[in-house]
Amino acid sequence: MKNNRFKKLLKNPYVLIGGIIMGVILLMIIVGCFWMPYEPTKMSASEKLQGISLRHIMGTDNMGRDVFSRVMYGSRVTLMIAIGTIIIGAGVGTIIGSITGYFGGMIDEVTMRVIDALFAFPSILLALVIVSVFGVGWPQLVISLGIAFVPSFARIVRGEVLRCKNMDYIENARLQGVSDFRMIFLHILPNIKGVLASSILIGFNNAVLAEAGLSYLGVGSQPPYASLGRMLSDAQQYMFTRPSYVLCPGIVIVLMVLGFAFLGEGIKRWK
Amino acid sequence: MEIILDVTDLHIEFHDSDTPETAVEDFDLMLGAGEIVGIVGESGSGKSMSALAIAGLLNRHAIKKTGRIMFEGHDLLTCDRKTLRSFQGDEISIIFQEPMTSLNPVKRIGWQVEESLRIHHPEIKKNERKKMAIDMLLDVGLENANEVYYMYPHELSGGMRQRVMIAAAMIGNPQILIADEPTTALDVTVQAQIVELLKKLNREKGTSIIFISHDLSLVSQLCQRVIVMQKGNIVESGDTKTVFSRPRHSYTKKLIAAIPKIDLDN
Amino acid sequence: MKYTLKKLSSTIVTLIVVSLCVFLAFNVLPGDPAIRMLGLEASPELVAQTREKMGLNDPLLVRYFRWFVAFLQGDFGTSYTYSVPVSSLILSKIPITLTLGLLAFFFTVVISIPVGIATAKYENGILDRSITVINQVIMAIPPFFSGILITFIFGMILRLFTPGGFVSYTQDIKGFLRYLFFPSIAIAFPKIAMTVKMLRGNLIDEAGKDYARTAYSRGNNTNGVLYRHVLKNAMIPVITFLGMALADMVAGSIVIEQVFNIPGISRILLSSISNRDYPVVEAIIMGIAMIVIGVNFLVDIIYRIIDPRIDIDD
């Protein structure tokens, strides 16, 4: 039965395409941890703004650095920031959402009021506020994006907890004297893991987009260790002279977002 | 008695899955002017499918229909959409099982009751139309018709909503009213009131009614003739009294045995 | 009326919560504003004097109240970096950013609603299938990347506009709007895709409901059912989404202004963030927050008009 469900998941075209895209990107990132064709920060005055060639499969940038190596490194930075964001956002969001949803009452009322206000607030601005208080850099970026992602997870989890709370099996468990803590973490949360899984994948998709946007604005990871968004903002002015320098990191961002989006969509439709 | 609707050899097949599924087979029905015919059977017997086919509401590509549904010289199964639409809501109306969801939640009652008039008789002036709608609402027993006219469906009870559905169906003074399990979702007392209302409309306006139900006692109260269906086939049909007092088919006997008590003389 | 009052009061509560968060974030968390203003080498006496003058010794709530009232009166404080009133730095730039966001919103509504209806109407047709695929890809392109591509294709190759050739609204309103056309399309792109996807799904769901069948039974044709019955029901959640999208697009302008070299609030916001010029950042954030809250209130009111059920649900 379980095996069958798994087969059905793999047959889903969304999961298939998303899986292939993410597989290729992950392979590139993992290989990049051990080996890169060039040192991503190594400049070369004689090889500025080269086109695509066998020597530099994505060309070189304005300082003669190998774009492919930088993309390998940049994707790792982008993915790490996204993972950090989701750990904070989904973790804190799940805790807040399940507690407020489960207990209800005054805590719920007040917390949700704040969460709703933050939710209505564009996450890029929320992140900018936090960055401006804590300063510029990637750890700050992870924290700010993480906090910016808390409201959406809290809302989703709260809604699901409210839905599950009154189901028969929860009532039964309550009659048997299961403690609140066990109830939330052992009875309710495992039941909403499907919804949570697709939210996390869609969260990744949004996190990559938000990270790219903020790094493009220059408030994320700092050079020379650039993420993909930062590379694009450096590359923009060379769009006309060397399009490959802009297109390569840009397309990698698009593929990464697309991969997460397809996986999320696939899981949502799976059931 | 003049025959106004003649259904012969109706077949309905679903082609949604790999193997086609037959929903209705060899369905025949002749409806006289002013007559009330009941169709009974358990869920899945094909009674609602036949009703939807007559109302012209089975238009999905995955459904294959054969046979003939003759009305005013047209075969409703093969005539063009435009001709079919010209009958829908004007000459043939239908009310459904779920009054809670069958009305548009974001439109006022008056607007919905008047809709058939707006579509089929655009020549009627706005004021006139409103007057007709309010009269119709009064006719179906909604005494505060002037207020109901401006209300939304969620402000009404289930029984009131079914009355609104009936008013909307009857406003064009149709020849045929198809009532597809109109009382199933309602309380027992409300059920009786709706049946009384249908009887009254039949008497006063001469509308023929096809009454679909799984409730034999309601059918026996209302209908002159009855058709019993099982698994897509007609197993027995005839005069209501005869069918109920001397059922020939074992399935009809079982259905009758399942009723707590029917008073046939009433 | 009761509903409007209720929404108004909850809007005010939200405004207080948000402004309190902003106040705490910029006036309490980062440390002593007096030291920030005077520098670390300032003598303790001078700091104490300044603290007294700035009212920093008053209770927090008093300080918040004073700050909030001043803000509502248009007094946003003095920039640390430029030592001029914040309002003089940002007021002339707000119309640019706002126009950009509103233009993007306009394109989103004007394009996505007809496209959403068309895809739902011809569900699973060639148009629908290709738009569904295109939508997925568009949603994956960050606006600044599509902005760069648009600059390249329409600005440099097709020469439909001059990248960097921004014209101020004070000089030439037509030229101003013409320059903002492509940037606003870049902002609108992903929102259009999302709205189309959402509207299509809602329309298909609603068309399968009982009341749509009732509408057919009265002699409506497909268009009659779609436009007179289904569309209004399907638009209800889309309106909430569009409200949030408007806020997002005003915020998204910040990124796109960088791409297209538009002198809106983006540049001053970013330089103030890296200079830690809090009064400027605070004023801009509060301004956008007020727009967001105002839009949400409007959405609630529009909701009330099109969805009569709201009385019992709320």
Characterize the structure shown:
The complex is a heterotrimer of chains A (271), B (266) and C (314). Chain A has 271 residues and is mainly alpha-helical. Helices cover 75% and strands 0% of the residues of chain A. Chain A has 11 helices and no strands. The longest helix of chain A is centred in the first third of the chain and has 37 residues, at 67-103. The two termini of chain A are 13 Å apart. The mean pLDDT of chain A is 84. Helices cover 36% and strands 26% of the residues of chain B. Chain B has helices at 47-54, 81-87, 109-120, 126-139, 145-148, 158-170, 188-205, 216-222, 240-245, 250-257, and strands spanning 3-14, 21-32, 36-40, 63-71, 74-75, 92-95, 176-180, 208-213, 225-230, 233-239. Chain B is globular and about 55 Å long. Chain C is mostly helical and 314 residues long. The model of chain C has no long low-confidence stretch (mean pLDDT 87). Chain C is globular. Chain C has 14 helices and no strands. Helices cover 78% and strands 0% of the residues of chain C. In chain C, helix 7 (126-140) packs across helix 9, helix 9 packs across helix 11 (222-260) and helix 12 packs across helix 13 (278-306). Chain C has helices spanning 2-28, 33-38, 44-54, 60-72, 86-90, 94-121, 126-140, 143-157, 173-207, 210-217, 222-260, 265-275, 278-306, 310-313. The longest helix of chain C has 39 residues, at 222-260. The chains are: A mainly alpha (271), B alpha/beta (266), C mainly alpha (314). Chains A and C meet through helix 4, helix 5, helix 9, helix 10 and helix 11 of A and helix 1, helix 7, helix 8, helix 11 and helix 12 of C.
